[in-house]
């Protein structure tokens, strides 16, 4: 009987984890990310925060040229690089395909820029010259960032501005960081 209860408990824990984690990359998923942003914005006092959207440049071409197994390896590699470039309490989530979201609290605009640049440079370096991750070619990312001093409570505005910044970074040729302030 206790073995059955233990198995049920294990399955419930797994189901709970899968509800908020991306299976391939083992990071948070879209649902968890948006819930985290909404939770932050609903606090009585919201201090400085930053949302970053990260897009892997030329990812569709990588999948088409090298196949989905290599594409998956690229995704996992870039997630690992991002995780090494951020603080343990920062939130990293896979939002869709090759797009990731990051949520940072308790930092200023200059610190947000430093972190975004570090992530971008680390991806370029660790998949390029050193190619520590054994991916078929050097990868680059574009990062759209929105920084707020906590004045906004509107998740739609936050995400729209982050998306605008990301589209701007990509339209300028990619491998860029663009920051908008709200």
UniProtKB/TrEMBL annotation:
Annotated Gene3D superfamilies: 3.30.70.270
Keyword field contains Lipid metabolism: no
Database matches in SUPFAM superfamilies: Nucleotide cyclase
Cofactor(s) of this protein: Mg(2+)
GO terms, molecular function: diguanylate cyclase activity; GTP binding
Protein name: diguanylate cyclase
Catalytic activity: 2 GTP = 3',3'-c-di-GMP + 2 diphosphate
GO BP annotations listed: cell adhesion involved in single-species biofilm formation; negative regulation of bacterial-type flagellum-dependent cell motility
EC number: 2.7.7.65
Keyword Transmembrane helix: no
Cross-referenced Pfam families: GGDEF (PF00990)
Location of the GGDEF domain: 47-182
Pathway: Purine metabolism; 3',5'-cyclic di-GMP biosynthesis
Native source species: Shigella flexneri K-315
Alphabetically ordered keywords of this record: GTP-binding, Nucleotide-binding
A GO CC term assigned to this protein in UniProt: plasma membrane
